Amino acid sequence: MMKRILIFIVFYQLVIQIFAINPFRFALITDLHIQMGNNAPEKDLETVIQDINQQQNIDLVLVSGDITEFGDKPSLEKAKALLGTLKMPFYITPGNHDQKLSPPSYDYFNDVFGDNKFSFSHKGIHFVGFATRPSQVGGNGVIAHEDINWIEKELSELPDSVRIIAVTHYPLQTGDVDNWPDMVDVLKKYKVMTVLGGHYHRNVLFAYDGIPGIINRSTLKNNEHLCGYSVYTVSDSLHVAEKQPGNAEILWMSLPFFVKEETAVTEPVKTDNKAVRKKRCIFRKADKRN
Description:
The protein has helices spanning 2-20, 40-54, 73-83, 109-113, 145-156, 180-187; strands at residues 24-29, 60-64, 90-93, 118-122, 125-129, 133-134, 141-142, 163-167, 192-197, 204-208, 211-215, 229-234, 237-243, 250-256, 267-271, 274-278. By secondary structure, the chain is an alpha/beta fold. The protein has one domain (21-278): Purple Acid Phosphatase, chain A, domain 2. It has a six-stranded mixed β-sheet with strand order 3-2-1-12-13-14, with no helix packed on it. The protein has a six-stranded mixed β-sheet with strand order 4-5-8-9-11-10, with no helix packed on it.
């Protein structure tokens, strides 16, 4: 009898969690690489935006970095003008081509877009975006300590039941972000369902110490000469599809929201006399494109 009661309680809590989320869809675009003197990336982005605007059920758009090729102010302003033609709100974070941490800084990103992070709730899901930037040109990404503290504060103020989707540019892993464990340790305290990003210019699924990391294709034309973007459907699961303008969506992954699965292994590894946590990707690791 007690076993039946426990099963009912678990089922009831699951139903409550599912219905707390009002199903919706959003788009994600990344690695735009807008630049002056080369209008090909601009044309690709215009095509993508036109396709997004033709969809009837996209609530919002996430933009996860490498907005420009060189981080210059004219290119950032051009990108902002193009993104301003979206019919729905967009939320943006920078990439390694847009900002760096060390002086001399060419940080025009905040001047143009107002901030390099975001935090908001939409239909039962909380979205939080933060910057992963190189400490120097060509270096690995780093997350500023003040941004880690900001994430901790933002998430700690949410109700315990709220599901969270995080957004940044780099994959949170060794070889991409030097201090990724500091951020992942914070994210693991809360109901972070996934971390979305770009940088590799293709679709691939990683695991950040057990948190699924979904990397998305670039808006630039691929080897098949097709530009594109990602469409996410939030319901009982997170369904991820690639959308090429003029073509039907290609569903490539579904991530259960309410089933806890071990998606990574953790093992001690010595790197420069320091113990770090090494992750194994769920799928084959993609060739990195910067």
